[in-house]
Design brief:
mainly beta; about 60% strand; 4-stranded antiparallel β-sheet
Length: about 120
């Protein structure tokens, strides 16, 4: 009963910026962690950034100081501001939202393509 809708992906030149959004809808009792992950062909999905319910953030070394994750609890939405993009950032980006009360579950978005040209 939970669906995540992503937007903001696209094609940009190296050094450019993109802002990804992910909004959750459906049966939502409580949102805990939110995060962004990415996958390239042949590679395991890796964490990009996460943000906890108290606003604590974590970033992978590859994106630290370039990407910023934020959340709007009233809108059940998580964002990823991506600046100074590099060709190595090219991947399919997935959002994830942890939802539950007695128990929790991570819901995943469908993925959005980000392509950075050199």
């Amino acid at each position: 009963q939970v669906q995540l809708v992503e937007s903001g992906g696209g094609l940009v030149q190296a050094g450019g910026s993109l802002r990804l959004s992910c909004a959750a809808s459906g049966t939502i009792y409580m949102i805990h962690d939110m995060g962004w992950y990415r996958r390239t062909p042949g590679n395991q999905r890796e964490v990009v950034a996460t943000i906890g319910s108290l606003g604590n953030t974590k970033y992978s070394d590859a994106v630290k100081d370039r990407f910023t994750i934020s959340r709007d609890n009233a809108k059940s939405t998580v964002y990823l501001q991506m600046n100074s993009l590099k060709p190595d950032d090219t991947a399919v980006y997935y959002c994830a939202v942890q939802i539950g009360m007695l128990s929790t579950y991570y819901y995943w978005g469908q993925g959005t393509q980000v392509t950075v040209s050199s």
